[in-house]
Specification:
heterodimer; A: about 400 residues; mainly beta; Rossmann fold; Neuraminidase; 6-stranded mixed sheet; 4 helices; globular; B: about 170 residues; alpha+beta; 60s Ribosomal Protein L30, Chain: A; 5 strands
Chain lengths: ~400, ~170
């Protein structure tokens, strides 16, 4: 149990006074503000961990550079442990104007110290930029370190890695969904053939959504959690279907007897689905109304355009390329303009938006080894989150 | 679900009417994909017409390696002329053993999107299935299972391995 509250009524008052200034981003998106953490007094043990996690979260957020004296923003307060309980009391000040932007306390059991720091980091990002942070988000990924592909969950910094499935089968393409990310849907060969499954994350309780002979793959819960988009071949060819409610009846969306569909992802309002189809001879992205009708092709350049993820601000990140090398690109579905995010000679695959609509987790494949990397689509900064101990694939952020 | 099953039976009947239960080879008109993207001969049955929704997945003892794998070109589910005789051998065996059930496994090489490859592998398996149905094997005795790029037959990262991994395999279920 994590408790968050104001740690002084006067600071709450200050926060509400400055609320209208809070959403002003003073700098260009790629330009970082400096922030000074020296005013935060920390004891040894878990409080030290709090400081380390907060510092690296702020670095990773894309908005800040942690600096010494003369910084634009200052964090002060203290972090202490007593009786197995960690309490952090933080004040965030805009140094230039002397305005208090945030005053908040965080407390929880010592093993939760990392979660406390993630919450604090997200609150600082929100207070300065008005935007959501993603430090307290989590990732689900596929890993093969046991010799089989299983699902794993980890924090936004790759820590607290937990193995979710122990199926000794093949588990693929996990995606979070439902209120408070209570579910993960995925494709599993648990019964010998590819079937669509849904796991309730808190209990591990599992339900098969579709298990017809043939292909049942890529289930993705709609934003309201009341429907599942997935690929079935039950009518004789891989096609896109919507199952509503999850576990209920199926409505067929595409009718392409000479093409294969894959990789559905929902628009933020749940009215449309973006997917991959090789109708043109090579895999390309299409958008279709969830109610059906003709799919509209939305990618034109690039030999293969695959693995779309429709983000919270309406833009679609996907992988473009062919053969053994892909790069990431971002598509605006209204203008059909796309921006290539190019780096090195590695292959960047299976991107997933973080909830800030700015950072992307993806699989980076180099020398036939696959690892999970975090990409800032604004600054181009990129760092590894999960690597070694086998290969890691198909990351998906909590919504 | 009942309606779906009725539809499926109807489609099967239509398919059999088209093929006339024929035992002659489907016409092999080359690999010109403009005629039929799957390389299924005109007298055969196109993929996308033979559903499996009314059935349960086959379960039982799996017998592997009885038949040769069918190989495919990159990013293609079209059956090449040179591969047809392998499928015809399977059809002969299926007709000679009327109780036998078959699962066709579709596989891809490691290139391209993993998730798209799962759909492509299914298309390969379905293309072989349609060809078998065109040769007179009842559709309800054949199911498909795609592994995408998850189960390569050869471990290399070059065309020599990829060529062996783009394949359809036949598994008898008893």
């Amino acid at each position: 149990m994590i408790r968050i509250g104001s740690w002084a009524a006067t600071i709450w008052a200050a926060l509400s006074v400055t609320a209208q200034d809070v959403v002003v981003v003073r700098k260009g998106l790629a330009e970082k503000a400096t922030i000074d953490l020296a005013g935060l007094a920390v004891g040894g043990g878990p409080p030290t961990v709090f400081m380390q996690v907060l510092r690296s979260d702020l670095d990773r957020s894309g908005w800040f550079r942690v600096a010494g004296g003369g910084a634009e923003f200052r964090v002060s307060g203290d972090v202490a442990e007593a009786g197995g309980q960690v309490t952090a009391r933080l004040t965030l000040t805009d140094a230039g104007r002397g305005a208090v932007l945030l005053g908040r306390s965080y407390s929880g059991a010592a093993p939760q110290v990392r979660a406390l720091a993630h919450r604090a980091a997200d609150d600082i990002v929100k207070a300065v930029t008005g935007r959501e942070g993603f430090a307290s988000s989590r990732l689900v990924v596929v890993g093969n370190r046991t010799g089989r592909k299983e699902l794993y969950i980890c924090d936004s910094d790759g820590q607290n890695l937990v193995q979710l499935t122990q199926d000794r089968s093949i588990s693929l393409y996990p995606r979070w969904g439902g209120a408070d990310n209570e579910f993960i849907t995925y494709t599993s060969y648990l019964r010998g053939y590819p079937a669509a499954w849904r796991i309730r994350v808190t209990t591990g309780e599992r339900h098969m959504l579709a298990g017809f002979p043939g292909l049942n793959a890529g289930p993705a819960l709609s934003p309201d959690g009341r429907a599942v988009a997935l690929i079935l071949s039950r009518d004789g060819n891989p096609e896109l279907y919507v199952q509503s409610p999850p576990g209920g009846g199926f409505a067929r969306v595409t009718r392409t007897p000479t093409a294969a569909e894959s990789s559905p992802t929902w628009s933020p309002d749940g009215s449309q689905i973006c997917y991959v189809s090789d109708e043109s001879g090579k895999p390309q992205l299409y958008i279709v109304s969830r109610a059906g009708g003709p799919g509209r092709r939305v990618t034109s350049r690039g030999v293969e355009n695959v693995a779309p993820d429709w983000g919270p601000d309406g833009r679609i990140v996907f992988a473009t390329g062919g053969g053994s090398r892909f790069r990431l690109a971002v598509l605006d579905p209204s203008s059909l303009a796309s921006t290539l995010i190019g780096f090195d000679d590695a292959s960047y695959e299976d991107p997933s938006w973080a909830r800030n609509g700015r950072h992307v987790a993806c699989a980076r494949v180099e020398g036939h080894r696959s690892a999970i990397w975090l990409i800032d689509t604004v600054s181009g900064e990129r760092i590894p989150l999960l690597s070694g101990s086998g290969d890691w694939f198909s990351p998906d952020w909590t919504k | 679900m009942r309606g779906t099953k009725a539809l499926w039976v109807g489609m099967l009947a239509a398919a059999l009417a088209v093929t006339g239960g024929c035992r002659s080879k489907p016409k092999t008109g080359g690999t010109d994909s403009s005629l039929n993207p799957l390389g299924v001969a005109p007298t055969g049955v196109g993929v996308g017409e033979l559903g499996m929704a009314g059935a349960e997945p086959f379960a039982g003892t799996e017998l592997r390696g009885r038949f040769q794998p069918v190989y495919f070109a990159y990013d293609s589910a079209a059956i090449a002329d040179a591969e047809r005789s392998k499928i015809e051998a399977v059809a002969d065996s299926m007709r000679a053993n009327p109780a036998r059930r078959l699962v066709i496994e579709g596989h891809c090489d490691e290139r391209g999107s993993n998730e798209y490859n799962l759909a492509l592998g299914e298309r390969r398996a379905l293309a072989i299935r349609a060809y078998l149905v065109g040769l007179g094997v009842p559709a309800d005795r054949i199911q498909t299972k795609s592994f995408g790029e998850e189960q390569p037959a050869a471990m290399g990262h070059n065309e020599e391995a990829w060529r062996l991994n783009r394949r359809g395999e036949f598994v008898i279920v008893e």
